[in-house]
Amino acid sequence: MNKKIAIILAGLIVIIGAIFGISKMASSQKDDTTIKAGTFTVGLEGTYAPFSYHDDKGNLTGFEVEIAEALAKKMDMKVNFVQSKWDSLIAGINAKRYDAVINNIGITDDRKKNYRMSTPYLYPKAALIRRTGDTSLNKLSDIKGKTMAQSVTSNYGKRAQAEGANIKAVAGIIEAMNLLTTNRADGSLNDMGAFENWKQSNPDADVEAVDVSKDMGSTPDGVLMNKDNKKLQEKVNKAMKEIREDGTLTKLSKKYFNKDLTKE
């Protein structure tokens, strides 16, 4: 009798275990929000301070890195970063190399047709950077004929060319500021947040910035996702609302830009 009971109990344990296994498998299969269940995989450049860059110890950090980490935490996920060059960054979404791109992606009508965008997390301001007191550079149209230090593939570089400026090609804002402070360039068009971050590290530099956002027509930045992933868009927007309401966005903006650029 005891032997029969033991056999029955053993059978029940096997059946119960199988039920839990199937349930767990089904649950895992249903979680198709991200490429890897429970992980928010984010594509970014990792070379543009203060948005995403490597610190002195080689660790990936920056404003958008911390935003991705905050969003993942709210979504109860781990975060995994995949670095890629700008030219192939957005294409990686279609190839499903990552779930989202968080890399100064402007929310435009064209992008909304082809991808899913989150609600804004940053309202970037375009800056016309000049030597302090240089009244010959007050507005965007003033750069015509001036020597501007620009990354030629950036929106700022393209706009400077369109406005008739003479371009000195640079890799980024650090190189641009070196040319400007040594009188080898008249100015530079760049992101106000990036300039403020550079200025914090170089407080004695004799340069200043003029806000030319209205002339440039700046657009807010958002998280870019695959067109087919409505579920992830909903989760990201919910998490974005939470980190806006709890003050995380403002805190991070002040940390990296010394001002709040998360509001219109």
Automatic annotation (TrEMBL):
Matching Gene3D superfamilies: Periplasmic binding protein-like II
Q: Which residues form the Solute-binding protein family 3/N-terminal domain?
A: 39-260
Does the UniProt entry include the keyword Amino-acid biosynthesis? Answer: no
Entry keyword set:
Signal
Per its UniProt record, what InterPro entries does this chain match? Answer: SBP_3_CS (IPR018313), Solute-binding_3/MltF_N (IPR001638)
Keyword NAD tagged: no
Report the superkingdom from the record: Bacteria
Q: Where in the cell is it found?
A: Cell envelope
Principal location class? other
The similarity comment for this entry is: Belongs to the bacterial solute-binding protein 3 family.
Q: What is this protein called?
A: Transporter substrate-binding domain-containing protein
Q: Which organism is it from?
A: Fructobacillus papyrifericola
